[in-house]
User: What shape does this take?
Amino acid sequence: MNLYIDPGTGSMLFTILIGVLGALVYAFRNVLMKAKFAFSGGKAAKEAAAENRNSIVIFTDSKRYWNLFRPICDELEKRQQKALYLTASEDDPALEAGYRYVRTEFAGKGNRAYARMNMICADVVLSSTPGLDVYQWKRSRDVKWYVHIPHGIYDLTAYRMFGLDYYDAVLLVGSFQKETVRKLEEERNLPEKELTVVGMPYMDEMLKRKEEEEAGKTADQAEGAGTKTVLLASSWGASSLLNRYQGKLIDALLQTDVHIIVRPHPQSYTSEKDLIERLMKEYPESDRLEWDRNDDNYESLKRADLLISDFSGVIIDYAFVFEKPVIYADISFDREPYDASWIETPMWRFEVLKDIGIQLTEENADRIGELIDICLNSPELKAGIRKAREEAWAHIGESASLTVDYLLEKAAVQS
Assistant: This one.
């Protein structure tokens, strides 16, 4: 007889197993510590606890977020402050960073990483991973303070249900994110989290890189004359740009005189392999079109005169860092599985899109050339981008420093 366990039940059983094992390990460790304390007058136990405890731990579930954490690790290293960086990606670039004070380690894949985090000893844990104490990742009894940092400028209600509920603090990109966090806490009768505005580390780095490159350009290069380049950057999943429009949008772009860069989400090459391979075969690289598979999207963003995307966070990165307009797809967003479904407040991202770009629909997709011209020549969109950036992106150029200030202050208080 074959037994089948559906993925949801399997995940629940694994969570229960991890919880039981964690409790047993914690109990055994307590017994061991008490025994050491009894036989050594307390000295050995105190030394063991100090040896196993980390002041600051940074945890990431994917190497994709190294661009977020690298400026923070660099700042810790510059200040000669010890920290532990744990990643669930065995090929995370952080593992080759060569730091002296920040120790980088592979925590194991998937549930192994969470199992380690469930028993970690630290004064402060910083992570961009939502769902703490909801799924496999549980709050460790030996962590005093959990801090969440977003990996982009977006609504904090865009996480899956209960995404931030069990963090102690959230580092905000801008003050606009406060309102919905407080409304969720009120709605769910949760204690107030500590909310501190620090800005966005990786966007600071992008802006710095752009400004340094622009400072080194010649006058001719700065003019940006010649063929215009359009970046088609799609998310992944059923509602994504490439899934919805397939090759229709690429065909329409090929009817214009622009150069086209197609950049699918990295996850598409795994989860939508058949779709991407078919499109790459139907639209091979040429002098008019190229496919970007680089881990770093900076070069494509820099080259593009205009971005076409869907619900990807790259829209905000591009508009705010490069101050150029976007064309955003008319993609419906189902709030039901997300924290956004608990409150009626309009989502910031969908409100701000109206100020920084033009909407792409099934009806106007074949007029993409006209939409591009309108975007590139609209003073209203340029003004809208600057206004939105000023309102949403705080402490430009200071975020890594402010983040480390916060971590050190909290570690000092908790130790």
User: Anything to note?
Assistant: Residues 1-9, 43-50 have pLDDT under 50 and may be disordered. Residues 16 and 136 are 9 Å apart (CA to CA).
